[in-house]
Design brief:
M1 Pyruvate Kinase, Domain 3; six-stranded mixed β-sheet; 11 helices; alpha+beta; 17 strands; Molybdenum Cofactor Biosythetic Enzyme, Chain A
């Protein structure tokens, strides 16, 4: 991974819906983005970065493209943007940024897409939050000060608890899951949230997690039983596109070896886009034990969702079947 590069251009647009224009310098504001840019503001997509190599690929299609045509705020040269995973920390002068989203979903294809049939920003661009502000100009050095490789499994953890959300007790399950996935999966926890026992709040948290393209695994902990406020499974089903019942079945089967109360679990696992959501119990011990029950399947699930997996049989060294029989001498 190239840990250094330089700024080739800085761009902004004063109105949404208009192309960004290159300018002499921009001011990055902590927690906001590019000062004066219409897309700046609180949230995780405060500014965008695109490497010039991706732009040159589009120019090779015969397009005359100015910097800013794809909505990028900063164009870099020599930086391995494609290798940066969520959580990577970048420095430009005094400014400090962290990668928070890989690419984006284009709901309304742009004119460039209609011309050549594809656009680079959804797959090649990255979005960042500004941790510390500063001026940025063309020619400034860009340094990756804390890289997280794109291949790293990225996890979001959502704790569902009224009391923890109100601050009446400390969340113990979320940190326990963080420790487990970091140690056992070599994963990076890109997002942690605590939400109340409310259907809409859980739905919003799940949709926010999967919208941050690059999140592979979303773990919920809490409110998946038979109580009147146990609505995590219903909220999860409102978000997922396809269920993966084998994961929940495996967790319940393993839990039944320890307690008959496992029969009351209503945990759900399912897919939305390229993310896998798994419901886990609310106790730290139960959450970790249930995740441990399905741990061995998770790296391959991530490979499948990313489109990186080879044939399952071949991946296990089994080939495509037994060799053909040979005739007896």
């Amino acid at each position: 991974m190239s840990a250094r590069g330089r700024v080739l251009a800085v761009c902004l647009s004063e109105k949404k819906g208009t192309a960004k224009q290159a300018t002499a310098e921009v001011e990055l504001v902590a927690g906001h983005g590019v000062e004066g840019d219409a897309h700046a503001g609180p949230g995780h997509r405060q500014l965008s970065v695109l490497d010039v190599a991706a732009i040159e690929e589009m120019r090779s299609q015969g397009l005359e493209l100015e910097f800013g045509a794809f909505g990028e705020n900063i164009v870099t040269e020599g930086l391995a943007v494609d290798a940066l995973g969520l959580g990577s920390e970048v420095a430009i002068g005094e400014a400090r940024l962290v990668v928070t989203q890989i690419g984006k979903t284009c709901h309304d294809p742009c004119a460039i897409f209609h011309t050549v049939g594809y656009c680079i920003m959804p797959e090649r661009g990255i979005f960042l939050e500004v941790q510390a502000g500063g001026q940025v100009r063309p020619g400034d050095e860009v340094r990756v000060v804390a890289p997280i490789d794109r291949s790293t499994i990225q996890v979001a953890i959502v704790t569902v608890s009224d009391r923890a959300h109100r601050g009446e007790r400390e969340d113990a399950s979320g940190p326990a899951l963080r420790e487990y996935v970091e140690a056992e999966l070599g994963a990076h926890v890109a997002l942690e949230r605590v939400v109340p026992d409310d259907h809409e709040a859980i739905v919003e948290a799940l949709r926010d997690a999967v919208a941050r393209r690059g999140i592979d695994l979303v773990l919920t902990t809490g409110r998946s039983g038979c109580g009147p406020r146990d609505v995590t499974p219903e909220a999860t089903r409102a978000v997922i596109e396809r269920e993966v019942p084998g994961l929940a079945e495996r967790m319940r089967a393993q839990s039944l070896l320890k307690t008959p109360h496992a029969m009351l679990s209503r945990t759900v696992a399912g897919l939305v886009g390229r993310s896998l959501i798994i419901n886990l119990p609310g106790s730290p011990k139960g959450a970790v034990e249930n995740l441990e029950a399905v741990r061995e399947a998770l790296p391959h699930a991530v490979e499948l969702l990313r489109g990186e997996a080879v044939d399952c049989g071949k991946a296990e060294g089994k080939g495509e079947g037994p060799p053909p029989a040979t005739a007896a001498p």
